[in-house]
Amino acid sequence: MRFPLTLRTLAALGLVAGGAFALEAAMSSQQDARNLGYDDTPFLPGGTYRVHDGTRPQPAVIDPGTCSTQDEPGSPPSDAVVLFDGSDLSAWQLPDGEEAPWVVEDGTFRVAPRTGSIQTKQEFGDCQLHLEFASPEPANGSGQGRGNSGIMFFGRYEIQVLDCFENQTYPDGQTGAIYGQYPPLVNASRPPGRWQTMDIIFKAPKFNEDGSVAEPAYATVFHNGVLLHHHTPLLGAVAFRAVASYQPHGPKGPLMLQDHGDPVRFRNVWIRELSGYDEG
What is the pLDDT, as a whole number, of residue 11? Predict the structure, then answer.
């Protein structure tokens, strides 16, 4: 016996077919994931994924940006937080919340001496930072009095910025030093007026409930593409003529650029947050 295909019957068939298609698509997706890797390999220690596991989440796809030249800054990665794009200091402020008074000109910004250090409005924890700086030209002064500034994570953990091209100072205060703690492995400084890059991977410290240090901060630093520090544990916050120590704080804090009285210039400043990086 043949039954007429009513609208209700057609709808029911559509729902069944739709469910079947969805189930087939899900099964196909699982099969594709298995085809990418293996499901008969041992599990990785402490995790839920196997060696060469095709079901493991794929890394996010980003545009990596471009490299800078002396004439032009490069472009940041597409997942970066841009802290200076050549136009204004809207991402920055004085520590008291007032507008950042440093000078923006020709796609760069420079320290306005004795106006105060500036810091980001946004706070960061574990991160990758890229910035470019140029020491004043012609060079003026010597030692710590020549092209001095600093990059301070959480406003307290300092990587030194200084003009160390044919200019000596105490080693743990040199360009790229973890100030007052560790000298850089090498002096990779360019002459005054030339653009230099600083790339830093910073891992924030962690504290126990009683305020003691559960895990120190770590820094990996490249100056002009040359490694200066490799996952180096910090002794604590920056200190002058004293041993660094820690005071407990939250998981995020501002990035600060130091006003040390010298008109150091900056450009192409961006940062990538690395929260969840260890979970991949």
Answer: 46
- Cβ–Cβ < 8 Å for 137, 165: no
Q: Three-state SS across the chain?
A: CCCCCCHHHHHHHHHHHHHHHHHHHHHHHHHHHHHHCCCCCCECCCCCCECCCCCCCCCCCCCCCCCCCCCCCCCCCCCCEEEECCCCCCCEECCCCCECCCEEECCEEECCCCCCCEEECCCECCEEEEEEEECCCCCCCCHHHCCCEEEEECCCEEEEECCCCCCCCCHHHCCCCECCCECCCCCCCCCCCCCEEEEEEEECCEECCCCCEEECCEEEEEECCEEEEEEEECCCCCCCCCCCCCCCCCCCECEEECCCCCCCEEEEEEEEECCCHHHC
Start-to-end CA span in the chain (Å): 59
Q: What is the mean pLDDT of residues 117-129?
A: 98
- Return the number of other C-beta atoms located less than 10 Å from residue 94's C-beta: 16
Share above pLDDT 70 across residues of the chain, in percent, rounded to a whole number: 86
Q: What are phi and psi of 188, to 5 degrees?
A: -110, 30
Q: Give residue 19's pLDDT.
A: 56
Q: Which long-range contacts (CB under 8 A, 24 or more apart) does 210-216 make?
A: 211/247, 211/248, 213/246, 216/246
pLDDT at 275: 78
Q: Are 99 and 175 in contact (CB under 8 A)?
A: no
For 33-47, what is each residue's pLDDT tens digit?
A: 558 899 999 999 999
pLDDT digits (tens, 9 = 90+) for 70-111: 999 999 999 999 999 999 999 999 999 999 999 999 999 999
